[in-house]
Amino acid sequence: MRTLNVHVSESRISRVVLESGILHKVRHYLAPLVEGRNIALVTDTRVSALYGNHVRKSLDIPSSKLLVLDVPEGEKSKTFSSINALATALAEKQFERGDFIIALGGGVVLDLAGFLASVYMRGIPYITIPTTLLSQVDVCIGGKVAVNHAGGRNLLGQFYHPQMVLVDPDFLRSLDQRDLKSGLTEVVKAAIIGDKTLFQRCEKCLQHPLRPQVNDHEEMIIRALHVKKRIIEKDEKEKGPRMVLNLGHTVGHALETATDYKLLRHGESIAVGTLAAAVIARRRGLLSPGTFEKIANVITRLLPGGPWKTVPDTAILDAMKRDKKKQLDRVPFILPKQVGKVATVWDVDQKEIQDALDEVRRYGPEDI
Ligand SMILES: NC(=O)c1ccc[n+]([C@@H]2O[C@H](COP(=O)([O-])OP(=O)(O)OC[C@H]3O[C@@H](n4cnc5c(N)ncnc54)[C@H](O)[C@@H]3O)[C@@H](O)[C@H]2O)c1
Ligand SMILES: [Zn+2]
Question: What is the β-pairing status of strands 39-44 and 66-71?
């Protein structure tokens, strides 16, 4: 078992426990926190079918205290109308301030259930059990919770931290290949930002077929979480240092928006964005050609296939104008300087972005 305490605002702590097999020991970890309380277990239909019964059994609380709330799987559930429906269910069951929400699922469920917890009665405690690699290495700490809005992705959100996070790499055994690769991209991102050893592990792991090797994953998850922990403890609300966690996300988010969140997994877009950032850094002389080569070798294995390459630059650049991190018409770019070191710059121009996208289109598989 490994643990990690993330110290956040107002002396709050998110306690992360990572252990293979936690799925069968949920009660052991949660009973001291939730004894006697109502619990809403929020999950999605797919995760519910795979793990709902196991978690309910392992939670072992009277059915009168448990409210199971499934939402349809996928990004389409991350809406205000889902929040409304879930809040109605909590209110009908007379949930009080001390009652708990448990989010069981990937990033969609964690963002949605976390946002619900943050607004219901001005905030009730929540616990997460992340089940995708992306949610285990990234989403589960940092407290960003949100739903989408017609005006933009994650437009309605808060910083609201879970009390406890239970990470079980065994969940990854049922994850499909694309979701696994999507999560690995965030691991590589964390490595480039702040952990050379983790980068070496990624180089090694990506030489082999992408089937879950639970031991590899445990190490990767804990190291990626440590990188994120160090950064968010310095800057909880993304006023400065936390921005580096957006490596690959300026172009990546724009590509996701330009493709209407339908074509690509989050990590696939971030792989494109991370390689584009590395190209820009190399062309500016910030990143040596040798280190660029190393980064490109790893990221190439995580790039999505063909269709994104036909998305016009103008669509990506237009979407970038709606970036939430834009200030005074400028969008921040995080550029790698070495493996383990990045810089934030505000003066990347359109031509540099277009040239980088041209170069990135020459990498990666033709088809999926
Ligand atoms: N809050 C943050 O800091 C943060 C950071 C990055 C991404 N996000 C958000 O996370 C979301 C993407 O997360 P995601 O990639 O986990 O997507 P997701 O939650 O949609 O999960 C992907 C798919 O995997 C399925 N699934 C989940 N666990 C499974 C398992 N163990 N076995 C088999 N299938 C499983 C889900 O049902 C879903 O179909 C986006 O909405 C993004 O905005 C949030
Ligand atoms: Zn991300």
Answer: parallel
Ligand 1 mean position, distance from CA 347 (Å): 32
Task: Check residue 311 and report its DSSP letter.
Answer: S
Distance 106 CA to ligand 1 centre (A): 3
Return the residue whose CA atom lies nearest to atom 21 of ligand 1: 106
Domains 2-174 and 177-361 share a fold: no
- Structural domain boundaries in the chain: 2-174, 177-361
Strand pairing report for 39-44 and 100-105: parallel
* Phi-psi group of 154: left, alpha or beta (phi > 0 → left; psi -120 to 50 → alpha; rest → beta): left
Residues linked to residue 15 through DSSP beta bridges, in sequence order: 5, 164
Top CATH class of 177-361 equals: mainly alpha
Nearest atom of ligand 1 to the alpha carbon of 172? 31
If one looks up domain 2-174 in CATH, what number appears? 3.40.50.1970
Count of all residues that appear for the chain in the document: 368
Mind listing the pLDDT tens digit for each residue in 211-227?
546 567 899 999 999 99
Atom number in ligand 1 closest to CA 182: 15
Q: What is the DSSP letter of 202?
A: H
Which whole-number Å values give the CA distances from 123 to 95, 128, 337, 358, 361, in the listed order? Answer: 12, 15, 40, 46, 45
- Ligand 2: distance of its center to the CA of 96 in Å? 33
Give this prediction's pTM: 0.95
Q: What is the pLDDT of residues 100-130, one digit of tens each?
A: 999 999 999 999 999 999 999 999 999 999 9
Whether residue 325 has pLDDT greater than 90: no
Q: 283 C-alpha vs ligand 1 centroid, how far in Å? A: 34
User: Ligand 2 mean position to 292 CA, how many Å?
Assistant: 21
Q: Which ligand is nearest to the CA of 271?
A: 2
Atom of ligand 1 nearest to the CA of 114: 1
